[in-house]
Every structure is written in structure tokens, then in C-alpha cells.
Amino acid sequence: xxxxELVRRTLEFDSPHVIPRxxxxxxxAEEHYPETVAKLRAEYPDDVVSAPAVYRSPLPSFGDRYRxxxxxxxxxxxxxxxxxxxxxxxxxxxxxxxxxxxxxTVPDAVLGVDVGAVDAFCERAEQFVLAGTLVRPFERLxxxxxxxxxxxxxxxQPPELFELLRRIHDVYLREVEVWAQTGVxxxxxxxxxxxxxxxxxxxxxxxxxxxxxxxxxxQVARRYGKFVFMHxxxxxxxxxxxxxxxxxxxxxxxxxxxxxxxLGRRFRGRITFWGEIDRQDLLSRGSTGQVKRAVREMRxxxxxxxxVIAQCEFGPGARPENVLEVFRTWQELGGAPESxxxx
Length: 343
Prior knowledge:
There is one protein chain. By secondary structure, the chain is an alpha/beta fold. The protein has a single domain (3-53, 102-339), classed as TIM Barrel. The chain contains 15 helices and eleven strands. A six-stranded parallel β-sheet has the order 1-11-10-9-8-7, with helices on both faces. A three-stranded antiparallel β-sheet has the order 3-4-5. Strands 2-6 form a two-stranded parallel ribbon. α10 (240-246) links the parallel β8 (227-231) and β9 (250-252). α5 (137-145) packs across α6 (147-156), α5 (137-145) crosses α7 (159-180) and α7 runs parallel beside α9. It starts with a helix and ends in a 9-residue tail after the last helix.
């Protein structure tokens, strides 16, 4: 069984013979622990990969998003990074005053995907392929207005806010359609909605303003036979039923702060948990024994003839031995090495 079929069976709760896996390796890890990164890639290759974001014309961006300094993305949002290896923060808004909304434009360049190049990648890949872009209406609002001002906007809800969201949503909807016509297996959504204890905004506000946007993205993906994967940091248990309702197939979110037992009790067999192992505390300060117990707890609580993808992030602060233990334990739980796809 190839990785692509393994992931499909996992998403459909169709008794995959092993648990598929994916590691997110940030540039920080490649810089600080290149030997561990090489070992991870050799011994625990990914079953899920992202297609390259190849465009017919270069995107109007500047700099490197992961290097210390300034990075300007294709929307014109300016990220300031004081630490190499991670993404910076937007401090200066593109729209400081609502009068500037009249001159604000969205980047059509992101719609010029080189479909031939993406399709060629998908044909060569044995892995399950995600779209090489992230659709993120809330975070884009934060990048355009800054995070602090975006929360003020959502509290006050001036008419200009909804016009800005309409424009953001329009380009993302078209971007989803472009990627859905390629050979990728799934569309990727991403918005960080949670703190450690709950939602950044009231769930009812989220349902009224943002849920309809995600629903439309999923509808487009379904029209082309694609799965939908979504990432959100934080404690977002209040909206997981909504994500299931609109058709999100796989969710990447911090299991530890919501509790694997509670997630399993409420959602086991209804959505695939695409990781993750706690990177704030466990991967950075825990022991390998604690890591092993956390992986087993996640498996026992969430696996239901599928519904789990072994995933964690190797980023700033993570101990290399703990990241290795994550995948070593999943390997023990999910079958012998010789049973892995592609081996």
C-alpha cells in the first residue's frame, strides 16, 4: 500500500495497516540539528507532503520569511523577524485607516499556479499531497490590520471590516479553486484561533463571521473530489463540531491543552487528528519516557480504525531525542518498519 492510499484509508476510517506520519521540520531544526533531521528523514519518511508552490510569474515578495530581518509577502504585508528559523511578526498595518481600504488590492499573482509543474510533482509522488498554499482569512486580516487592531475590528464590526473580509475571501476562494483543479489530494486551511484555555473570539462570533467562509472553501474542494486539512493552534474544542459539520477531514491542533481523553470521547471516529504532540512543554522539556506515554495516550484515545496521523513539529527548543522518540513510538504502535509504505 502506498502512502497516498494509506492516508486515504486513515481519513475514511477504513482500517489502515499502520498509522501514517508527517514531521514538520522548521529551518531552525535544520540549522541546529542537521544530523537528527537527516536521521528522521531517512528512518521515518513522510506519508504526507506539500506540493511545491510554483507560479507562472514570480510572486511580488521580498526577503526570506525564515531569516532574521524583514520579509514582505505577496500581499505586501511586512514581517519583522528578530530570530532566524521562524516566521516574524507584522507590526505595521497595510490599512492603518479605513479610508485606505479604497486603494487596497489583493494579489492576483497567487492565482497563476503552474498547474503542469504541480501535476508532475503529484504524479511522481507516492505520498498523499497537500496543496502548496495556506488559506487563512483570519490571519490575513491580522496581517493586513495587525493582530491587535483585527481583534478591535471584530469587536466593533464596522462595515469596512466586512468589505475587507469579502475581498480576502474572494481571492482565497479563487485560490482554492485553482489548486483543487491540480492533482493534489487535499486543500490546506490554516488559522490560529485558540489560546491555551479557549478561543480568541467568542465561538458564536466565529460561527457567524468565519464559519461560512470555511464552508465555502470546503464546498469547492469537494466539488473537485479533494479532502480538506486544517491547522489551528490553541484550545479550539468549542468549534471542532462546526469543522466536522462543514466537512473538514483532518485537524492539526495541540492535543495536550484540550485533553486527548475528552477529544476522543467527543470526536473519535468523526475527524482525523493530524497530530500533534505538545511542542510547548513536552518536546522541549519532557523526558523520552513522557513522550512515549503521550504518544500511547493519543493512540488509545483517538484511533478508531483510522483517524490519526502521527505528526509533530521539530522547531525552536525541541530536544532532538524527544522528536525521534515520537516517531520511534508511533513505529512501535503502528507496525514493523518493513510494513511501511515504500519500504
